[in-house]
Structures
1.
Amino acid sequence: MRAFDSFLLELKRRHVYRVAVAYAAIGWLLTQVITQVLPVFELPLWVQRLAVLIVLAGFPVALLVAWSYELGPAGLRRDARDGAGHGRFRRIDFAILGLVVLSIALTAVLWRAQTFLPQGPKAAAAAISGAGTKSIAVLPFENLSPDRDNAYFADGMQEQILTQLTRLSGLKTISRTSTEKYASHPEDVKTIGQQLGVSNVLEGSVQKSGNQARISLQLIDTDTDAQVWADTYDRSLDNVFSVESDVAAKVADALQVTLLPQEKRQLAKAPTHNAYAYQALLRGEAAQQRADVSWKQPDIDAAVSAYQEAVAADPQFALAWARLGYAYAWTVNFVPSADARTMAAKSKAAFGEALALNPHLPEAHVAAGFYHEWAENDDLAAQAEFKQALALNPRDANAQLALADTEYHLGRLDDANAAYERAVSLDPRNVLALQGLAWLEGERHQYAAADRNLLKALDVNYHAGLTWGMRDYQAWLSTGSGAAQLAMIMAAPPDVRAIPTHLVDHAMALYRSHDYAAALPLFVASRGSAYSEQQLCAWQADTQWQLGQRDQAAAKYQHCVDLILADTDHESHAYESARLGWAYVRLGRKQEAEREGRRAVAILPISKNWEGGADMLMALAKIEAQLGHADKAVPILDALVSTDHGGTVTIATVRTDVDYDPIRDTPGFKQLLQRYASVHY
């Protein structure tokens, strides 16, 4: 016992304790730096492990040196067995203590960053902006099934595998929308890699026959065209649930993507163990994909029916409940003939069931977000749900684009811009994402930048009617020239110009060019456009008014009033109040006109909807202008043109819009134009 005590005293005298503590602190610090910094340079995993082993191996060496040598003024020398230098070593004690505190603090920071950031918006932005070689696009899977009706199985498997890959924080993935145009086994993967900004593509083929399925996959390096990984899964449909998780894990391993503990747990969970429910989900996903493109009721009806079968077969199938909730909400927004209240109630019940089964399911929060946006017009509630979905899965392109839209509606333009850019990064060939970014740029009067993004959208789909419509409308906003709008319309391909909505746009361009005689027949003949009957009625009446056909115009305005009042709920709709006010002012019903204009602003203020609120203010300004109230109209216009509302009204349109003619010669209006005389877009 006395010998052991003596040994401990000797360890203390030789400062072995101090060296041990100092090395432990420094070694731990080095280990944290190695494991956090080396992955940034994408060095192989064995390099990281070797570096950590070297740090560990140095510990006994440091103890041995501390026992045998002493660091003194003359440098490192054999221990002289003296006890001098207590003051110096006292300072070393404090230095060692500082190193320990620093290592603990840094470890806590790094642990927090690793644990929490991958699940939040900051990590999403970082991961999206650059994942280096750890990036992938999942190309459409080839359907090799003898029965062509089994094509849904290939589409559904692609979607499910992609969904699993998007949940891996260390891997950049590209949304299906941007990959759907490519072949299943393209010859030129390098070009695809350049177009999508990825270093790898996953190709696949699916063959389903009876109760058996063969899923063949290969991971290709887009730079070298080399096969990185490949596998074939022969499964019965009773045992196919885990394929997508297994594929995600093997792709991650092949690309040396480190999986976080929660990601490993997520991959280990099968969404259902009911074969029929799983197949019904895949059928629903395929039908929903068709509906997203066609906007046709038979496609969404097929999706709803399939999801209903899935939850009937497995009531615990949270993902199917979530997708059913989304499909119902989709119906509210895109199927005019649907019973909106019934569909909204069903949507709420379905995604509520999903959240009850799994509160951390991203798809359930996405469905809830779209319910709030489409069924309740509650962008704040929708924003919260989309943020929650992205916290759980930062690479959900659908949620990212939806969040961008809600941020824009709420007037948070900087946040909206960042969200749109992330959406484009996740889904670079998504026309809706490019359109959203372009529209936001238009709000900020950045029309040249907006048109560049619209041209990118046309590069994806040259015959996209909405993209051409945005181009011609922004031509009007940026110049105030109906001729400029008309020139953009005529630049569109013939099939786009023949779309009913574009025929109406053509009529509006003629109207703004003061060619009322040419505009009127197009308004009268309009059938099947995206514009409401009430809006078309007002434009036709306006054109007759400008042609001097005042009696016919008055009759048409009265017809517009009758159309609006036929809606028993019209008082709750801002746009209907604005149109009612406009018809009243032309009919000489001045007090009612001003009342309805102000009601529209109260129903839909800018604080609730950035674009819609600006529309209501502009409508009120036009009513006040028609009443000769320059003192009321000019401040509204000044507030709009001086801020980021370039998607609604600009000083260029104020200069030329005939609706402001009654106050054009007033001092206030002239001063407004003079203040912005040097402003051109």
2.
Amino acid sequence: MYFLRCTLPLLSNHQNIKMNKILVSVFIVLFGTAIRTAAQQLSNPLDFPIQLSGGFCDLRANHFHAGIDFRTKGTEGHALHAVSNGYISRISVSPWGYGLAIYITHPEDDIITVYGHMQRFTGPVTDIVKEKQYEEESFAVDLNIDPGVLPVKQGDVIGYSGNSGSSGGPHLHFEVRDLQNNNLLDPLTYYKSRVTDTKKPQVKGLMIYPIEGKGVVNGSSHKQKIEFKNDANGDPVVSTAIEAWGEIGLGISAIDRIDGSGFSYGLKDILQTVDGRETFRSHADRFSFEESRSINSYTDYGEWSRNRVFYIKTFVEPGCSLRMVASRNSGMIQIDEERIYHVMITLSDLYGNACPVSIPIKGKKQEIQPADTAGTHRMRWYDYNIFASKGIRLNIPRNSLYGNLCMYYNASSLKGYKSTLHTLHQTPVPLHRPAQLSIHIDSAYESIMNEQLGIVRMGHNGQRSWIGGTFRDGWIDAEISELGDYTIAYDIKPPVITPVDPGKWQERKQIKIRITDDLSGISTYRGEIDGRYALFCFDGKKALLTYDFDSERLPPGYHRLKLSITDRCGNRSIYEHTFTW
């Protein structure tokens, strides 16, 4: 009941009574889930003691980590076991994401468990998958399995650990989902007694955000990083004087660690108080996939984009709908008296290890400069926003911005590209839902084959990200997920096909071919042997195609291989080779 006791006073003062009721209901649901979870125990999916390399709700690019990562001794091929009775309800294979993955439904536990980045499946699952792959003539497949087809008992081997998909190294990605609504739950609560953690979270940095036109910190209206030093207990203490006036928000950069591991993990709980009064709380124990992109509001998106550092904001933007956060006055701190404001941020993990951060802020009257909105286009977070200028159209759906925005726009020339470079704001702005962007092609290039043109996003370090799009009467239309710098590029280069050790194919009974593309990226590939479809597995992160000689479909003798690769602009490459085995 502790969480309810300390949260309900916060809600009772909320101005919006309807939201009050919704939040109370959510916390009741969460409390009920906590009781159920505490009573459940899932078995170890591996044959050796549990060690973790990733935690639930760890901060990742554009999403929260959806599960926990079990270490597998840095190697692949370890048996994976079903953690409870149930049945395999879904099997997915992809060059990206979870790679080879199995989903098990556990009706008695009211949960679904997910096992990602597998190396291979067991025989019955492999047979079902391969049949579907040849039926669809596609390596990537996603199968829903009826309950009676692949039942499993707790402890059954369902496959072997690997490094498939977008994995950064051998491990098992493991998830627990609520069977009723597919919400993601913290798997560590099921294994808490088998993981030792006596370490408290560690603070890496503090950011202060004066609200433009409403606040000022140390004479500046720009966000400022504040340095720490540690006291005798090892707790962080602010080492820089902070003088503020008006409305400000805070952001904290921190990690958590567990015993016997050098990996860093996300934070379970964050509590902010001002003069002893709670103003913000974050409790990361569940979220939905629809909420996951809200990490771009939960954290400082600009700081992540530019410096690859996460700062969690202890204030809530109006367009952020994360259920894991609650706040009073959106978590903003109002400095309107010349005195010391005692701000405390307490970081805690699942085991109750806590790190208190004391942040004294001296209220001092300072001139607050009005927000500079000259030449900008005002956009409201809750509204449908339209922007148009010469050669560009932008349509942002309702509830796509996390906060109101005065968007700066600039047009400039960029040598080697097929349109004006359009700058949509000076700093990156994330969008919760995709916006429709249309850019007009320079007249000198309208005769170019339109499928070879596409919108690209120009990064601050010169990197290009292909967006693509559809040609329409001299325009390219595409969806974008953030504001930034956009123009039109031209891709006429076909993909590159590179055989890997072809002299050893026969000996290894395996064909390996690397495929790359310099701009738009690989769209499709097709392998054929003797004119018939051949199943080439694709490892996206290695850009590697692999075909294992299949005695059922490939008899010994002389064979002709044909591989065709097409990029997203329709450029095509073909590789042909004869071999025997």
3.
Amino acid sequence: MTHFGKALLAVFVFALLGLTSFVAGGQDAANVDFKGGKNTWAGSKVGDWVEYKLQLGPSVRFEVTAIAENGDITFQHTIKNAEGESVSDNSRTRAPDKAPVLNRVPDNLNAAWTTTEYEIGGKKISCDAASWSQEEAKGSVWFSKEVPCGGMVKAITDDKDTVWLLAYSKGGKVFRVAEKTPEPKPEPKPEPKPEPKPEPKPEPKPEPTPEPKPEPKPETILGPEPARDYGDPITMQLPESVRKAMKDQGVAITRMRVYFDEEDKDGGVVLEYEGMRTEVPIIYAAFKGEDCDKELSYKDWLARDGRFVDLAVDIRTRPKVLKGMKVQIVHSHLQGEVETELSRFEVTVPEPGDPWDSLRVRGARPGINRYSLVVTYTNKAGEETTQTGFSHWVVVQSPPMFEFLNSVSAKATRTQAGSNTALAADVRMNGSFILHHGIDPKDCTLRITRKGSREMNLAELPSEVRRVVGKEEIPPGWQEVAKVKFSDGKINGQDVVMVEDSFVRVLFDHSFAATAAVLPVKDEWEYHFELLHKDSASPLATWTVKVDLSIAKPADVDKAKLKVTATGLERPLEVAFLKK
């Protein structure tokens, strides 16, 4: 095995939040074959929903909102953090065979299928459960035909639940995992107390000798609490389409202001911009840029109650009074080039001659926020007419990551092989985070670099083996291991970056294998993980993992430890070589 051999292997562990498997061929729930890779999306109806809890704290919900004639399903996908705050809420439309299923069975492993039950909503639902093992890791995933929106019920990694079903609604009936509540205890009745008698003071007893505490067992998993945010705050660049719209809009605003400032004109210049035309009635609806927020620092945004922005509008019409006039501000948010409407706010129309009030609009998100004016009135024919006014953009600065968690796990074994001892170690690097609301994952790349050395005593090896190992020289300095686009996420067919909406999980593995015949041995590596973006020359965020192993002689194997340090860990993870 080469010294790079297993180091580039990505270990498959289920992604906790929609590390989505696009399984083929949804069908009616009664006929779903989970072993064949099917799911329950095609049998789901409008109003059906599922809600899952994740080991790291967040929760995720899918709800069917519409079904097209061709069978395509529109669903609302909501992610909430551990505090219950919504951090992502998007509508998606997919064919049933392309809709997300939170977990899947690895294609390259022979999974064993069994039947089990899951208790929810006062009943037990039948589940098909697949279990497998890969190297030292174990995994399983449960599915049920009773559960809509994919059918996934629970996922387990190394005997720990990583994703589990909290609730689901099917056909208007809701089933929810019951929360355990303590049984009420009866109030104790007061009993008559006898008069206290003086008790003799006991003879002082000698202090017992404290028993020696057992040696602590080596830990195999270590991870910090999720960081609320991670990385230096960044300011999103305006997309080219927004820059052009702002430039064109500036010209139009100037021309329409000139028109309204000429009081004696009943007609006016002909001007068109995004559906507006200077015909009677004429509407000028714009924001007063000098009185509006344009860019907010992350610190200021956090300090604002309700995450508000301050806006000021200027709306003029000719004639000056329009029948049934109403004004709304439409708040939308950009993620890359994709714009999503978030909310609408009613604006109070002042009495004729009174000025428009300044506004405080809540709910701004990190990244690029667009506020558009919409004016509605009743025309001469009695029809309600809507006209879109100009827009204003507010950029909110933010760190590139939220809920960042960088955890590591490690296993080390020693196996007696005749007179020799085989050593094996595996370090799993597990990073997860919610991406900055304004960043499109398709614009991101993960870059993995490392530097280090692996030194062995080859003198005792046969010459033919020594020649092969000797050819593998490790270049000095930082070396690029891989660049992985978030849209692909794979290295050599293995999942390394898994993305569902804005939730990202990064999984990577470093392995070591040797025998006591090559001692002394050193294995020292430092890995850098860099979040790259197409519009940034430098990484948006970087985190590291260091691996350190040193064994001088065979007698040291019993007490040798693999040491791992990582960004965010308060103390190193140290793992002893356990006898296998």
4.
Amino acid sequence: MTTTDEVPLLELHDIVKTFPGVRALDGVQLQVAAGEVHCLLGQNGAGKSTLIKVLAGVHKPDSGSMLWHGSEVSFSNPQAATKAGIATIYQELDLVDDLSVAENIFLGHEQSIQGFVRREHMRSDARAVLARLGHGEIPVSRKVGRLSSAAKQIVSMGRALSHEAQLIVMDEPSAVLAHDEVANLFRVVRELTSRGIAVIYISHRLEELRQIGDRVTVLKDGRTSAVNLPVKTTTTDDLVRRMTGRTIEYVFPERRPRRVESDSVPLLDVRGLTRIGEFRDISLSVHAGEIVGITGLVGSGRSELLETIYGARKAQAGSVSVQGRALPHGRIDRAVRAGLGLAPEERKAQALILEDRIYRNVTLSTFAQYATAGLTSASAERTAAKRIADLLALQPSGVTRPVKTLSGGNQQKVVLGRWLLDPDGDQSAPRRRGRGTKLLLLDEPTRGVDVGARADLYRVIRRLADDGMGVLMVSSEVPEVLGLADRVLLMREGHLIREAAAGDLDEETVLDLVMAGSLLEVSQP
């Protein structure tokens, strides 16, 4: 970390960047010292992504100045930023699954002589880079697609070090990592900063910042609402207030008291569901109007269970019934027809067509309702999607812009909205109990979503349950599960280990149960 009389590694002064109809950055300030972890906070839509792309040379600011080692610079493209020593690791890692680890580390600056790639030399240097990161065990000849999420993060860092990066920007690096993998990520980050490399660390998990950060800058509505706050002594209430104007991180809607008759038929009934190597003998139920939350460590089988219920994976044993009627295994079409809708964890890769317009993404599951003689009515699609967008308070308003221009929270609203359209073409109201979607399967519904958008999504989910829809939700955020769900199921290593009313559990108990015996004990011979 630099002292007060040292020149900062990076300084941004009054950075402004506008797009048609949007002022994404409005006079942003940032100062990063060599060897520090500088945390960048802000809601989705606050300008973090745009700021990252300015640093990476993807966007050129309209005004303002950028100083690198005390000298003003302007990057015309990402290659220029990389050459200067600034590397960016995006949330969606830009690795090539079909190339080897070594090929990914040196992608774009392959080591060659007279046009011939020096593969053995490249592999040797890749091993050295990974060893610097404390991960010499990663095979440099293995295809990246075969690696775990944590190993892919390390390969991305290795690519940055292969360019001799002096500043590494990490966008939500822990979002897909298990608890032990996050601890290892922090160890690697500390190794980097001990050698004078600076890290800009972006995360919505405020507890992470306490463990890894030195200073924090907060963005709100494209402006800098706080600069260089000390992470260790700035309260969570203060950080959240500077991001949102509120003073609490989780804002849950009030639960309505509800009774389930013991002899009533569940909306969803799962009995003995099994997929070898993923989960075994899972039994659970969800009633109409109920939110059931599943939590556990990454790798405990939570997401695989949700996908199997939906038919995206084929069970090897057990049964799934909706309102007393059995569903065939591995048939998504039958699940949708029975009233199941899935919002997957990877919404950008699995649920959205990013280049297409909002209304087209909303109507995707009911597309045939807007077609006559093979021709679709775009105006009917827009009208239907507009009603859903208004219901969900989609921001910015309007349904004709590409869905990729929305923040993460609003993209998630689009995915939810898809399952609220009436399949019979009557769009006067969202789907009600007994028509259309009866059960929503939500996998990490607020992953990468800021504090303010979380509260909006919580209200939407609770309102749908109050209207009679069932919700089965997977989340790594324990406070989220306890605050939103009516009942909670705990998973560990492919098994359900406990079921309880949310009010009967606390965060410490949940963490103790899901982490007990998981990581170190399983690895023992």
